[in-house]
Every structure is written in structure tokens, then in C-alpha cells.
Design brief:
Length: about 450
């Protein structure tokens, strides 16, 4: 039986007092230019009124965004979501004591939806949150979410860890989230998810809701990924992640039975890129990767996340299953090579691909756009929606496999084939796992 009132009373106040001062508001501002009217895109309209007419000149409006952030170092280093400060012209940080500072961006990574900001404190040390290893969390652990929902001011909500390693939430390229039922609402993005020892375990990022408000399905980026982004924030420049060079699919119950696996888990390898870390480790199609560095992987998203949180040059230990036996292999992770050079080209002219932007697929580009590690050839990166390529249904991610009976291997070769003037075009497009054929009149 409780012996005192203090033993009966449950309060998060001591944790909040330690952590709340390290959570800030993030205000971003950007100027958006838009056409005064859709008619201004008509050349006849522009010719009639003139290029300098107020009817033709684009209009400007200011777009503002509100989110939250977390101070992770006493010198004023702050972590928030990429989508909170995306394309911002100005970023203002408001501390818990209501002081305001202009921030600069040290790193912003759209693929993981994280950004690192810095404010100049002129030697003053700020309260900050230490990072806790998110792999220590267990389902059922109590957590607090701190942020500025709907702009009402700093708010603290509590809940539990509802699930770990959620990979079905498509809000970033590396889908691997902590799920919580702590109330998270618009404006909480970039705020802190903290454990009851007062350390940061995640950055609140997204909610699942049909109404726009919290329904108990909130998602946070694990601190393991936050630590990885912070480690390279000071260097600036291009973000380079390690590359395994293998693509696969989740192991279903049917696959597990056919592979003699005791239960459905892991990633069934479909392809291995030549000269990749996976190839050097002896990984082959048909094998199942069950874990990396001791952490089980349920699907390809989990495998990609685990690889992405390791530094380039580190050693990865893979537990691999094949033909009823398990083995462990090691490989040194490298950066994906830019070979061949991508040679990005905007296609124009009288041919079916006019209006498409294409490039040579390399391991670096395939990893960048989330395609099969072993994919090669010429890929469509973007399509002008008013172009012949768009009218024919081509889209980004399509691989141009063949033109008039000839296999396409490079952008240079594709341009040579398109310079010809056949009576009709015979085209082959690889879209995901399908090969599509199309005949177009010249």
C-alpha cells in the first residue's frame, strides 16, 4: 500500500521541467510567385497585352509555416523536420523564454525529412536534450510529445510507444517510425518525443487522421536516424549514405513455407548489383537477409534504414538464410558509385519522348530515387505535363528499354535513336516489374 500522498500522485512535471525548455517554435517564411491568371500562359494573350502588362506579370504572396524544433546541443544546434523549413527564405526560432533568433540551415535532408539549424548565441549555453538510443525502446514504454500544435503555444502530451519499426507510413524515403498514441497535431512537426528519463528518442513527424486532428496514431523519426544526420551536419555539402547493393521483397507466409523458414521474417533478395558490398559478401538472389548487426529486419524498408544509419566505410554483419541453414557474412559498406555518369538531359524534338528529362542509371542515382540497386539503362526523371511524353503516359521512374528494336543502354545512344525519322516508333518501357510495349505514329 502507498505510504504517502507523494507515492499515490503520478506527475510528469519533473520530466517536463527538464525537457520543455529545449523545445522551440520554428517559423518559416517564403515568397511564392504565381501567374496572375491561367490565360497568361497563352502566347496570344501575352502578345496582345504585352510582357510588361500587370495582367501578365506574376503575383507574389508570402507563405508561412509553423512547426517545432529541438535543441540538441548547448551551442544552439536545433533539429526539426525538413518539411517545416522547406524552401524557406527566412527561419525564425522562438525559445521557450520567448526570445527570437534568426536561424541558418546546416543541413536539410528531404529523404529522411530532417533538418539541422543553428542559431548564434554569442557564447551563451542553452538547455538541450541528450539523445537516447531509440533501439532501447519497447512497446508499452511511456513517452511525452512536446511541441506547438495549431500554434496555441508549447504543449505537452503523454502516451505510450504503440509500435516500433513502422515501415508502411509513406512520408519519407526511409520509412521506419516509432508509433505513439501521445496526441500529435499540426504544428507538432519537428517537436520532441522524449522518454521518462528526459532524453530524446524521436522527432515527431506525421499523424494518420481523417479529420486533421489527433486520433492516437502519431509517428516519430527514431533518434538513431537523428544522430546520423547530426553527425554529418557540420561538414555540409552533399549527403552520402552507404550502399549495400541488393534489392528484395518481404517474406510472406507462403514464401516462408516454401523456403523452410520457421516464420515469415527478413528480406528475400531478388537482385544483387555487380561489384557492390552485397556482391563482395557473396550475397545471392534467393537468399534471405534476416538481420543486420544483430537487428532483425522485417522488410526492405527496415533493411534500408539500418544500412542508412551506418557510416560509409563501416562493416555490416548480415545474418543470411538459404536452403534451411543460416550463416553470417560481413561486408564493408561503400558509397554508391556514380558509374556511369548520369548525363541528365531534357529531350526535345519531334519524337515520343519530347518533354522528358532522362539520365543514365548508376548505383548512386538508383539509390537516390529509390529504385532497384541492380537497375541499369536510361531512366525518366521527370515529364513536362504539357508535352508529348506526358500525353503518351510516360512518368518518372520509367526505364526506356528499347526503341525500334534496339536496346537502349545510354542517354547518348537514345538521342541518336531519336534523331532518326522512322514511319512509326516501336517503344519498350520497363515500369517496375513489367515490360510495356507501345507503337506510336511518327
Amino acid at each position: 500500500m502507498p505510504q504517502s500522498r507523494e507515492q499515490v500522485q503520478l506527475s510528469f512535471a519533473p520530466v517536463v521541467k527538464r525537457t520543455a525548455p529545449a523545445v522551440v517554435n520554428v517559423f518559416s517564411r517564403r515568397t511564392v510567385r504565381s501567374a496572375a491568371s491561367p490565360l497568361t500562359q497563352d502566347p496570344l494573350f501575352r502578345r496582345f497585352f504585352g510582357e510588361n502588362s500587370p495582367f501578365v506579370a506574376p503575383t507574389e504572396r508570402v507563405q508561412r509555416s509553423l512547426g517545432s524544433g529541438v535543441i540538441v546541443a548547448a551551442d544552439g544546434t536545433i533539429v526539426t523536420n525538413h518539411h517545416v523549413i522547406k524552401d524557406a527564405d527566412e527561419i525564425t526560432i522562438v525559445l521557450a523564454d520567448r526570445r527570437e533568433f534568426e536561424a541558418r540551415v546546416l543541413r536539410s535532408d528531404e529523404r529522411v525529412d530532417l533538418a539541422v539549424l543553428k542559431i548564434d548565441m554569442h557564447g551563451e549555453r542553452l538547455p538541450f536534450l541528450e539523445l537516447r538510443d531509440s533501439d532501447e525502446l519497447e512497446v508499452g514504454d511511456m513517452v511525452l510529445a512536446i511541441g506547438n500544435p495549431f500554434g496555441v503555444g508549447q504543449t505537452v502530451t503523454s502516451g505510450i510507444v504503440s509500435a516500433l519499426a513502422r515501415t508502411g507510413v509513406g512520408v519519407s524515403d526511409f520509412r521506419f517510425f516509432i508509433q505513439t498514441d501521445a496526441a500529435i497535431n499540426p504544428g507538432n512537426s519537428g517537436g520532441a518525443l522524449v522518454s521518462l528519463d528526459g532524453r530524446l528518442v524521436g522527432i515527431n513527424t506525421a499523424i494518420f487522421s481523417q479529420s486533421g486532428g489527433s486520433v492516437g496514431l502519431g509517428f516519430a523519426i527514431p533518434s538513431l536516424m537523428v544522430r546520423t544526420v547530426l553527425a554529418g551536419a557540420g561538414s555540409g555539402g552533399k549527403i552520402v549514405r552507404p550502399w549495400l547493393g541488393a534489392a528484395g521483397q518481404p517474406v510472406t507466409a507462403e514464401l516462408a513455407q516454401s523456403l523452410a523458414l520457421p516464420r515469415p521474417m527478413g528480406v528475400l533478395i531478388k537482385s544483387v548489383a555487380p561489384n557492390s558490398p552485397a556482391a563482395r559478401a557473396g550475397l545471392r538472389a534467393g537468399e534471405v537477409v534476416q538481420s543486420i548487426n544483430g537487428h532483425e529486419v522485417e522488410d526492405e524498408e527496415a533493411l534500408r534504414f539500418r544500412v542508412a544509419t551506418l557510416p560509409v566505410g563501416s562493416t555490416a554483419r548480415l545474418a543470411v538464410f538459404r536452403n534451411g541453414t543460416s550463416r553470417e557474412v560481413e561486408t564493408v559498406l561503400t558509397a554508391p558509385p556514380e558509374d556511369p555518369p548520369r548525363s541528365t538531359t531534357d529531350l526535345a524534338g519531334s519524337h515520343p519522348f519530347a518533354g522528358a528529362r532522362v539520365a543514365n542509371l548508376s548505383p548512386a542515382l538508383a539509390d537516390e530515387i529509390g529504385m532497384d540497386a541492380a537497375a541499369r539503362g536510361v531512366v525518366i526523371l521527370a515529364v513536362d505535363r504539357r508535352s508529348p511524353a506526358a500525353r503518351l503516359g510516360f512518368s518518372d521512374g520509367d526505364i526506356i528499354a528499347g526503341v525500334n528494336g534496339k536496346a537502349v543502354t545510354s542517354v547518348a545512344q537514345l538521342r541518336e535513336l531519336l534523331d532518326q525519322r522512322p514511319r512509326q516508333w516501336q517503344l519498350q518501357i520497363r515500369r517496375r516489374d513489367k515490360l510495356l510495349s507501345l507503337t506510336v505514329g511518327a
